[in-house]
């Protein structure tokens, strides 16, 4: 089934001087202009194309990749504002994404970058954006477990830390003490469930919590040492950023892990880094 606002693999049905027509199922044919056509395309070939309605309400296709398709979030720049709403650049050069005033939590200004959810308006059939995420999230009770890995999108910064969208379904909070590396609105990353409170609110972390976290990191350190011929140029003297770039964890956690591996006789800690202790 063809969905407007999504990328599909579509069959070429006709070739003209100005482009090719693709079979868009129940929507008929969609024009893919010449500037987007693959070289030597022929009738019967399949092309991965994004389908949308142009300003004349005609169905068209492009091989451009939008920042976010229908049903997805993306960080977009506001290109302009008029009496209808704000228009955001979403990766389709010929058409900006409308964010109606009714779908804005606050009024936007030109040049501002905002996190937007893309959806199809049922009344008009148009692809539009919204920043009113509360109507999309926390519709079902959270059933996550402690240390469960989840997909996160950083949605906004608050006095408490960073609010994040968890698996596209729930709100979660990442407190400053659990932030590792550079965090900014719109960033997509993996995280872990730290705690689910009695009121259902979710606390997040960017690394596993407690013993499970330490065991997991120790295994990763040994795996990296084996992969890199028994040496890593990291130690308890390395910078937090250097450690995070390799293991996505804090310096404190890394120091505890290599300390435990050292006590077990599995590694040596030298000035230039850590070495895997090889069996005789």
TrEMBL record:
<feature type="domain" description="S1 motif">
    <location>
        <begin position="69"/>
        <end position="132"/>
    </location>
</feature>
<dbReference type="InterPro" id="IPR003029">
    <property type="entry name" value="S1_domain"/>
</dbReference>
<feature type="domain" description="S1 motif">
    <location>
        <begin position="3"/>
        <end position="64"/>
    </location>
</feature>
<dbReference type="InterPro" id="IPR039566">
    <property type="entry name" value="CvfB_S1_st"/>
</dbReference>
<dbReference type="GO" id="GO:0003676">
    <property type="term" value="F:nucleic acid binding"/>
</dbReference>
<dbReference type="Pfam" id="PF13509">
    <property type="entry name" value="S1_2"/>
</dbReference>
<feature type="domain" description="S1 motif">
    <location>
        <begin position="145"/>
        <end position="207"/>
    </location>
</feature>
<dbReference type="InterPro" id="IPR014464">
    <property type="entry name" value="CvfB_fam"/>
</dbReference>
<dbReference type="InterPro" id="IPR040764">
    <property type="entry name" value="CvfB_WH"/>
</dbReference>
<dbReference type="Pfam" id="PF17783">
    <property type="entry name" value="WHD_CvfB"/>
</dbReference>
<protein>
    <submittedName>
        <fullName>GntR family transcriptional regulator</fullName>
    </submittedName>
</protein>
<dbReference type="InterPro" id="IPR036388">
    <property type="entry name" value="WH-like_DNA-bd_sf"/>
</dbReference>
<comment type="similarity">
    <text>Belongs to the CvfB family.</text>
</comment>
<dbReference type="InterPro" id="IPR012340">
    <property type="entry name" value="NA-bd_OB-fold"/>
</dbReference>
């Amino acid at each position: 089934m063809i969905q407007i606002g999504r990328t599909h693999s579509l069959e070429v049905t006709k070739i003209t001087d100005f482009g090719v027509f693709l079979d868009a199922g129940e929507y008929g044919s969609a024009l893919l202009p010449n500037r987007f056509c693959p070289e030597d395309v022929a009738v019967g070939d399949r092309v991965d194309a994004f389908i949308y309605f142009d300003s004349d309400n005609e169905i068209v296709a492009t091989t451009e990749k939008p920042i976010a398709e229908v049903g997805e979030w993306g960080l977009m720049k506001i290109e302009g504002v008029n009496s209808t709403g704000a228009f955001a650049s979403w990766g389709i050069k010929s058409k900006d994404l409308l964010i109606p005033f009714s779908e804005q939590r606050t009024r936007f200004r030109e040049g501002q970058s905002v996190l937007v959810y893309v959806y199809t308006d049922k009344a008009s059939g148009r692809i539009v954006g919204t920043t009113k995420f509360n109507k999309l999230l926390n519709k079902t009770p959270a059933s996550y477990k402690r240390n469960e890995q989840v997909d996160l999108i950083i949605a906004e910064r608050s006095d408490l830390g960073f609010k994040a969208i968890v698996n596209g379904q729930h709100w979660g909070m990442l407190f400053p003490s659990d932030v590792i590396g550079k965090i900014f609105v719109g960033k997509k990353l993996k995280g872990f469930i730290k705690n689910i409170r009695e009121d259902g609110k979710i606390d997040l972390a960017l690394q596993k919590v407690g013993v499970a976290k330490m065991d997991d990191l120790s295994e990763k350190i040994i795996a990296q040492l084996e992969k890199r011929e028994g040496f890593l140029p990291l130690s308890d003297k390395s910078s937090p950023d250097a450690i995070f770039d390799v293991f996505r964890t804090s310096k404190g956690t890394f120091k505890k892990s290599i300390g435990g591996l050292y006590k077990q006789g599995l590694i040596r800690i030298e000035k230039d880094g850590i070495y895997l202790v090889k069996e005789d």
